[in-house]
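Subject: design request, 142 residues
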């Protein structure tokens, strides 16, 4: 079970009582423009690949054109993130497709997420916090 093995979503004893450890694990950024990241076809993400990659990635930082750029590698994928330094918000993340002929297609889960959560202009620009992303991702980490 991927989620509980890496993130402690099982229960553990704390002071003689059972404590729930379902708190959101750390992500590389404080906020994410998740609709932009997942719903722009050119980025190449599915909800599952974003979740699995984001919680298992190692990233290095560089600076480009006023943005902090992060190059990330996980067991599943490799990508580049654009982060606004002042707000620590990831505004774009694109999977590296070197060696592949085309960008991966969104699956039905991702299309449904985009239709339900990103249709409205305000929702599209929402900055998702790690706790919100964790709620979305828990079922995709198994």
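Subject: RE: design request

Done. Sequence follows.
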């Amino acid at each position: 079970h991927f989620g509980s093995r890496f993130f402690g979503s099982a229960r553990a004893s704390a002071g003689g009582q059972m404590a729930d450890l379902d708190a959101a694990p750390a992500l590389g950024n404080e906020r994410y423009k998740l609709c932009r990241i997942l719903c722009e076809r050119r980025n190449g993400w599915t909800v599952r690949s974003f979740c699995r990659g984001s919680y298992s990635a190692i990233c290095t930082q560089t600076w480009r054109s006023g943005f902090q750029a992060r190059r990330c590698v996980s067991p599943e994928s490799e990508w580049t993130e654009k982060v606004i330094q002042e707000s620590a918000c990831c505004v774009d993340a694109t999977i590296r497709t070197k060696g592949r002929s085309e960008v991966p297609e969104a699956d039905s889960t991702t299309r449904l997420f985009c239709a339900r959560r990103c249709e409205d202009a305000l929702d599209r620009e929402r900055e998702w916090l790690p706790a919100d992303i964790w709620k979305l991702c828990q079922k995709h980490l198994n």
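The first strand starts at residue 11 and ends at 14.
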